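A further point concerns the way the authors explain their paired sequence and structure data. The central task, working out the structure tokens from the amino acid sequence alone, is never made concrete. I therefore recommend that a typical entry be quoted early in the introduction. An entry of this sort, consisting of the sequence and the corresponding backbone structure tokens, reads as follows:
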Amino acid sequence: MKKYEYKVIKTTQEGFWNPQVNEIDLTSKLNNLGQEGWEMVSAVETNSHQGSTKEIVLFFKREATF
């Protein structure tokens, strides 16, 4: 039977007047995780108020080596 390990990453937005996720940094982080064998299985955004995105939560899994 396969066994898995999981990782949760939270991204936050930067900037006060027009907050945005830094796509370049996020892409780099995702590529590094992919090289380590992590597969993103889900992404969920959380709201702060009035539909504004507070953060994005990313869920990853990979086959366990233990």
Q: What stands out?
A: Residues 23-35 form the longest helix (13 residues). Helices lie at 23-35. The CA atoms of residues 22 and 59 lie 18 Å apart. The chain is about 20% helix and 45% strand.
